[in-house]
Amino acid sequence: MLGRRGVRPRLNQQQECQVTGSHLRQAPAMPKERFDKESSDNSKNAPSTHHEVRDESPRPRFEALIGVSQKMQEVYKLITKVSRHQYPVLILGESGTGKELVARSIHSSGPWRDKPFVPVDCSALVPTLIETELFGHVKGAFTGASQSKRGLFESAEGGTLFLDEIGEMQLSLQSKLLRVLQEHEVKAVGATERKPINVRVIAATNRDIATVTRSGAFRQDLYFRLNVIQISLPPLRERRSDIPLLVTAFLETLSNERNSAPTISEEAMRRLMLYDWPGNVRELENAIHRAVALCTSGVVVD
Question: Where are the domains of the chain?
């Protein structure tokens, strides 16, 4: 039985362990009519949940991206097209939807796949050091600069620089980033000359960057420069038919250490698909990992 306290995927009849999914306790009830409508979206591509679910649908393999829904098919088509060029790409999507996976897929699918892919979390960089991190510095540029340091733009030479959470970047640095994108050259902190660079920039944000731009918190000219090609990732609640594939993929990865091949009952999968997953794919993956970590013989999430 599946109660309101969570979700219970059944692995097998001999090995079961109950784990309470507290993060699902407050999941809003969804009328059966709404569930049937949403879960029927792309139902032709959605596999049965009675047995082990495998993604056998023909589609390009992009890093760890999983899904055969129509919205993901559209994302795959865009990745294929933009990977052939070096135009800037702006990836939009809620937290946990897989923005970095899309950026890596663009890089690895193109002719520059053998060049560096350098990810940068703009929200994690210390404001006082972000300029030297991106552009580098020369020896003696400031107190403590005992030697020259190459910036991340130079580290990504010939490849891709992925600027995650670009919406968190300070206005003072946005102008310098804009100049780099326009002139294709960087100037290290303390340097007198600029160096030419050949780097493809992919940016991502979970904010409504158009609204942030209109408010003045993000430079409009930088927004236009980055937004040459835009890829919008759907939240998991808008592609529920992909949940069986995602769950099975996570369990298969974890089962390598457990020597088991778990399956999920139809009713258990129904409960998983009822939840709206505000944390998207990352939250779903963490829920499965938690269930496996708390069990010693098998996995049952209830």
Answer: 18-61+236-301, 70-232
Q: Same CATH fold, 70-232 and 18-61+236-301?
A: no
| Nearest alpha-carbon partner for 73 in 241, 274, 204 | 241
For residue range 179-196, what is the model confidence (pLDDT) as tens digits?
A: 999 999 999 999 989 999
CA angle 241, 242, 247 (to 5 degrees): 120
CATH topology of domain 18-61+236-301: Helicase, Ruva Protein; domain 3 (1.10.8)
CA dist 187 and 131 (Å) reads 10
In degrees rounded to 5, what are phi and psi of residue 202?
-120, 130
Residue 118, beta-bridge partner list: 161
Kind plus residue range of the DSSP H or E element containing 75: helix 70-82
How far apart CA 250 and CA 237 sit, in angstroms, is 18
User: Residue 165 in contact with residue 212, Cβ under 8 Å?
Assistant: no
Quickly state the pLDDT bin for 293 (edges 50, 70, 90): confident
For 152-213, what is the HEC assignment?
HHHHCCCCEEEEECHHHCCHHHHHHHHHHHHHCEECCECCCCCEECCCEEEEEECCCHHHHH
35 pLDDT more than 70:
no
b/e code 80-102 from CB counts within 10 Å (16+ = b)? eebbeeeebbbbbbbebbbbbbb
Class at the top of the CATH hierarchy for domain 70-232: alpha beta
Contacts of 52 (CB under 8 A, 6+ apart): 248, 261, 262, 263
Dihedral sign, Cα of residue 235, residue 237, residue 241, residue 247 = positive
Pick left, alpha or beta for residue 90 (phi over 0 → left; psi -120 to 50 → alpha; otherwise beta).
beta
What predicted TM-score, i.e. pTM, was given to this entire model?
0.80
Question: How many C-beta atoms lie closer than 10 Å to residue 17's C-beta?
Answer: 16
**In DSSP terms, which residues pair with 149 in a beta bridge?**
137
